[in-house]
Amino acid sequence: MIKILALATCYNRKEKTVSAVNRLVSGNPGISFDFIIADDNSTDGTAQALSGIPDVKVMFGDGNSYYTGGMRIAMAEALSQLGDTSGKSGSESSAPASHASDSPASESPASDSSAPDSTALVAYDYVMLFNDDVEFYEGSIEGLIGKAEDTFGKGAAYDGMTQQRGTEEAAPERPEATILVGPTCEADGVTFSYGGVKRKSNFKPKFWRIKAGEGQGYEMIQSSAAGNGSDAKKFVEVDTFNANCVLIPTELFVKTGNMDKVYNHSLGDFDYGYMLRKKGGRIYVSDEYVGICPFNSNKGTWEDKSLKRSERFKKKESIKGVPFGEFFHYLLKNYNILTAIIYSFSPYVRILIGR
Predict the structure, then answer these.
(1) What gap in Å lies between CA 66 and CA 70, rounded to an integer?
(2) What is the mean pLDDT of the chain?
(3) Residue 204: partners with Cβ closer than 8 Å, 6 or more residues away
(4) C-alpha span between 211 and 127 (Å, rounded)
(5) Which domains does the chain have, with CATH numbers?
(6) What integer pLDDT is reported at residue 88 of this predicted model?
(7) Do residues 121 and 82 touch, judged by C-beta distance below 8 A?
(8) Are 265 and 70 in contact (CB under 8 A)?
(9) 258 vs 91: CA distance, rounded Å
């Protein structure tokens, strides 16, 4: 049986969080799941509800962790139990950060009896990063792994280059460390929302959000709701991902370490995909949706052109926006110094000219 250690962060979405966990377990009976979930001081009883579910370990933030900080809490606990006791982040930067993951996280006393056993953690096939608001389809994770084995060969997470079974077509070169991304869709079940991320340029920080089988860009996928054609690929290689549903071989997860401590909310998952690749991983996104997760609208964000310029500037620099220091760090780390200098200022130009 495949074993997965699934990691997520949550805040005041009890019904959705509990539903995501239950859907993963009940919908994939051929997989043994353990969970580590960071609750960022929810006030709606999320932690208590999770603590009542077998094989779920709850960690706590102080209410200021946000997405990336919350994921670091869960990932630090996973790394500690898997043998990397440092739980280190992927940046040596000393940039200040005021989120809970930079201080010791506490675990839920109620969850101790059902926590994953440290001796069993070494046997995990994958560490899974997931969003707690995904409505996972029945059999979606079993299907994602089965599709990888059908495409690349049995034991797809660990094989080297293989050939696609039953055909003469050579599968993509596949090193031991291979990451599988399960794309998500809108409530209509056909319109793409999140998945793989492909660069448009090695200089401009522009990208497509994509899944295999439908075009090459987010715009093309949105307009192609009819489904996959007969020539659709089962997987396509991408540069990074939205971490709504990502399966990472355990050895690669431990080798890569934690998300970069510079980020508070956004950019953490994009950056982590690049970190995994730098450690030898390759990222493949599937052509089948694993569940429903509507795309977040830019209404009310710094990109909302209907807002006043002053409000847009304020929202951009907020924790849930794209603060200058975090964005500059991301561009410098994953592109180059010239890109960082030019494009860290370009959002301000967009706001000034009303774009």
Answers:
(1) 6
(2) 81
(3) 339, 343
(4) 21
(5) 2-292 (3.90.550.10), 309-352 (no CATH)
(6) 59
(7) yes
(8) no
(9) 9
Which residue do the tokens 């739980």 mark?
A: 87
**Cα–Cα distance measured from residue 150 to residue 165, given in angstroms and rounded to the nearest whole number:** 6
For 236-290, the pLDDT digits (tens) are: 999 999 999 999 999 999 999 999 999 999 899 999 999 999 999 999 999 999 9
H or E element at residue 27: helix 14-27
Q: Is the dihedral of CA 146, 152, 153, 156 positive or negative?
A: negative
Locus of tokens 């549903």: 245
The strand pair at 135-136 and 178-181 is best described as: unpaired
DSSP string, 92-160: -------SGGGSPPEE-GGGGGGSPPHHHHTT-SEEEEE-TT-EEPTTHHHHHHHHHHHHH-SSTTT--
Residue 206 CB neighbours (<10 A): 9
DSSP secondary structure string for all residues of 178-244:
EEEE--EE-TTSSSEEE-EEEES-SSS--EEEE-TTS-SSHHHHHT-TT---TT--SEEEESEE-TT
Could you give the CA distance from residue 212 to residue 301 in angstroms, rounded to a whole number? 29
